Amino acid sequence: MLETPKPSCVVPIGRKEIQSQLNRCPPLPSLASINKALQGLLVVEHRYTAHIAEIIRRDPSLTSRLLRLVNSVYYGLSTPVNSIEEAVFYLGVRQIRQLAMVTPIIEDFQRLARQCDFPWREFWQHCIGVAIMTREVTTSLNANSDDSDYIAGLVHDVGKIVMAWSFPDHFAEIHRQAAGGTRDLILIENEILGVDHAELGALYLEHHRLPELMVHSARYHHQPEKAEKFPQVVAAVQIADLLMRSEKIGFSGNQVAVTRDECFTVSGWKVLMPDSHEHERNIARASLSRTLEQMPKVLEGLV
User: Fold this and answer.
1) Residues 189-210: pLDDT tens digits?
2) Is the dihedral of CA 146, 94, 106, 27 positive or negative?
3) Over the stretch 73-88, which tens digit does the pLDDT of each residue have?
4) For a Cys-Cys bond, which of 93, 125, 183, 233 suits 250, CB 3.0-4.6 Å?
């Protein structure tokens, strides 16, 4: 016999009150300037490893995450990597740059989300995994990109963190109801709070005058076909998000099951490959599947 759902003790909030509470939510400094000194150094591929290592040493948190990552990814090494120079050699410039972006953002996220009980570590893994897979989607299609696609994937779910800080009671009730996995999280959020995490994240990013790419990725990552700007990056975020959910890597909070096949039929593919043939999509699928296989090891080292 099915249990009757408990009545909700919270009520939806009007848009004006939502915006007022949102304005009190503290900013995330790392989103405005993401470790610029290190990024600038890494743009030049020919820099010596020793120069890069010296910059990394100034940030203990980055140093710790770097060594943890290299030892989890290259777990077959005969002896653990304890040298920053050696870690930089193994990981390469691209992964170091991504790591430099992840570290301050995740630390800001953690400070903002402390007041709500939620599997945050798994959530950070989801966000970082989506960032990595967003980059892989764009790469698999030979799309030229700077680090903006990675950042777009990383912050796509910032609305959930903002919701936990600004409306903790509503956040708890939403995820209590979402636990059954029978209803999509977006529907529950709109019903319980009056706004979903996608719109909430976009409003927050707009309020703090962050780049339009971040705003659009947050607002439209479930419906990239509606994005008037940066549709290809937003579409890549949608696909990356669903791939992570399909493999149950990390935890997004949306417990409705997603199959691998569904990930390759969503609207984002029409945005990215409107005239593609089946074999082209199969090539992309094979490439993304290989990255997914390595993802648990990578995330274990990052978070």
Assistant:
1) 999 999 999 999 999 999 988 8
2) negative
3) 665 667 888 888 888 8
4) 125
| pLDDT for 3 | 42
Amino acid present at 291: T
pLDDT tens-digit readout, 31-53: 655 445 455 555 555 556 777 77
Contact call for residues 229 and 161 (beta carbons, < 8 A): no
- The Cα 86–Cα 102 span in angstroms is 20
Instruction: Compute the distance between CA of residue 148 and CA of residue 151 in angstroms, rounded to an integer.
Output: 5
Could you tell me if 159 and 222 are in contact, meaning their C-beta atoms sit under 8 angstroms apart?
Answer: no
- Which alpha helices (DSSP H) does 74-184 contain, by range? 84-112, 120-140, 148-154, 158-166, 168-178
Query: Which residue type, as a one-letter code, is found at position 127?
Result: C
pLDDT at 220 (0 to 100) = 98
Sign of CA dihedral 133, 139, 141, 146: positive
Every domain of the chain with CATH number 1.10.3210.10 lies at 118-303
**Angstrom distance (rounded) from CA 295 to CA 143:** 22
